[in-house]
Write a structure and sequence with these properties.
Blueprint lengths: L5 H21 L14 E15 L2 E5 L2 H11 L3 E6 L16 H15 L4 E6 L12 H8 L3 E4 L10 H11 L23 H7 L8 E5 L2 E5 L12 E8 L2 H14 L20 E6 L1 H13 L5 E6 L5 H12 L3 E6 L4 E2 L2 E2 L5 H11 L4 E5 L9 E6 L4 E6 L5 H4 L6 E7 L4 H15 L6 E3 L8 H13 L5
Parallel strand pairs: 3-4, 4-5, 10-11, 11-14
Antiparallel strand pairs: 1-2, 1-8, 1-9, 3-6, 6-7, 7-8, 9-17, 10-15, 12-13, 14-18, 15-16, 16-17
Length: about 475
């Protein structure tokens, strides 16, 4: 057998150095209890929305979701279980000023614990709030000091959406930890604690527990909104729920806590009275969100309408299915964020402008408008399917991207099947009608304003979406 030359040995070692981490990354499986598709259960539901829009030349803010969350916390008697992605007040305070959203939620939880010491409160969040181990987030520290269980999600247990980097990170960098020397100024807030290079290396895995849920013994709220100061003026959607399916939400959060190393108390929701409702609700988390969306898109036929309000839309199969639905005669209407603003910084419009320009070019009958953002974001994630004899609504935390609906991020949505004349059908239909037609304000602008036909930019979008080399 011919011996390998020194050059050949070097090349083989280099290949193994690169390929083995990639294979390892691709072999990571979802943690147990994720990508849940729950059973439908009857329940009472109520639509809630935050809106920022322009009226008579002035910017108008209509926030409701945080107020509803605090009201639900105040009513709780036995337990509170919440999972929130962004939860901090870190931003450039020399440039901007936002309401104290994180403080408000924190104080409501602490006050509840003080007034009812026997209530169990669990708060789950993402390590972004502590810049991936660089420091202890002050709101979490204050809640812990007041007897609230706080859990920072262990992102290493999740699948890798960015395997080209994450495999390398898992094999060669993860073992470095996050370190104690912090000398890099916080890029989001000069007054926040410094960060270090090891935390930046962890950030580059580009994964998140992106959920926004609140469960108590009195009901639940599933939302697209973060209790995060710089996010306060974003336009968002949520739903308040009274249903036995809340127990599915509880168990899905128990799974997150468990793979993050903590067993939380056994909570159970029991409706105060038997629910006689036409609404049927089920939980969709992580990859099940994509399956639920695509299942309903595939059902849409001539005469049906698909209404979408979305912050990010880029997942290839979902876009293809929307085009197919339009070809079948379904009316497809999309309202999307133009991806131009992010916490005081300007963005390049990717992925929405590239993805939707391509969709519109290939399927001209698809109707698309952009939300008229004025520094904030159209942060909604909602789909209303208007079928011949019923409506289906899917909303929650999941953007329509590979990372969000193909079982990489932790996400939480609900699917509601209901009659066309139900209260939630009427309210969600009115919501889309108002912002699509700019009733009593300027909410949306025509597609041509932000369409993007650059082939190079489209290629960047394709590569980033496919390989996970992006923040969406």
């Amino acid at each position: 057998m011919k011996k390998l030359t020194s050059t050949q040995k070097f090349l083989l070692a280099l290949i193994l150095f690169i390929v083995l981490p990639l294979i390892y990354s691709l072999s990571i499986e979802e943690p147990e209890g994720t990508s849940v598709c729950g059973d439908f259960a009857p329940g009472n539901v109520r639509f809630i929305r935050d809106l920022t829009y322009v009226k008579e030349g002035k910017t108008v803010h209509e926030p409701h979701i945080l107020r509803e969350e605090i009201a639900l916390i105040n009513k709780a008697e036995k337990f509170i279980l919440t999972d929130m992605f962004l939860f901090n007040d870190t931003y450039n305070k020399n440039k901007d000023c936002y309401p104290n959203a994180s403080d408000s939620l924190m104080l409501a939880l602490i006050e509840k614990k003080k007034s009812n010491p026997n209530i169990e409160i669990v708060f789950i969040t993402d390590p972004y709030n502590e810049f991936y181990g660089s420091y202890k987030e002050k709101h979490l520290k204050e809640m812990e000091n007041n007897g609230i269980i706080t859990i920072v999600t262990d992102l290493d247990k999740m699948r890798d959406s960015n395997p080209l980097y994450s495999g390398f990170y898992r094999v060669y960098l993860k073992w470095l930890g996050t370190g104690s020397v912090k000398w890099i100024p916080n890029p989001m807030d000069s007054t926040a604690p410094n960060i270090n290079i090891r935390s930046l290396l962890k950030l580059l895995n580009l994964k998140a527990n992106h959920r926004k849920t609140l469960c108590t013994d009195k009901g639940a709220i599933v939302s697209s909104a973060n209790p995060h100061d710089p996010s306060f003026y974003h336009s968002n959607v949520a739903v308040f729920i009274e249903s036995d399916m809340i127990n599915d939400i509880i168990e899905s959060e128990r799974a997150v806590a468990k793979f993050s190393g903590i067993d939380i108390p056994k909570f159970e929701y029991k409706a105060e009275e038997k629910l006689l409702s036409d609404n049927k609700i089920r939980l969709l988390t992580d990859g099940a969100i994509g399956e639920g969306l695509k299942e309903n898109i595939d059902k849409a036929e001539k005469g049906d309408t698909i209404n979408i309000g979305i912050f990010y839309i880029s997942e290839f199969e979902l876009l293809s299915k929307l085009g197919e639905a339009s070809h079948r005669g379904a009316n497809v209407k999309i309202i999307a964020d133009p991806n131009k603003d992010a916490f005081g910084m300007k963005k390049n419009g990717r992925p929405n402008r590239e993805a939707l320009t391509k969709l519109k070019t290939n399927v001209p009958n698809v109707e698309i408008k952009w939300y008229n953002t004025t520094g904030e974001q159209y942060h909604a994630k909602i789909a209303l399917f208007e079928f011949e004899d019923s409506n289906t609504i899917i909303l929650g935390s999941g953007n329509y991207t590979r990372r969000n609906i193909d079982a990489y991020n932790m996400e939480s949505d609900v699917e509601i099947r209901t009659s066309k004349n139900s209260e939630i059908s009427q309210n969600v239909t009115a919501y889309f009608d108002m912002i699509w037609n700019n009733k009593n304000g300027i909410y949306t602008v025509n597609f041509d304003k932000f369409k993007k036909e650059s082939k190079i930019s489209y290629l960047f979008y394709i590569v980033q979406e496919a390989l996970g080399l992006c923040s969406w």
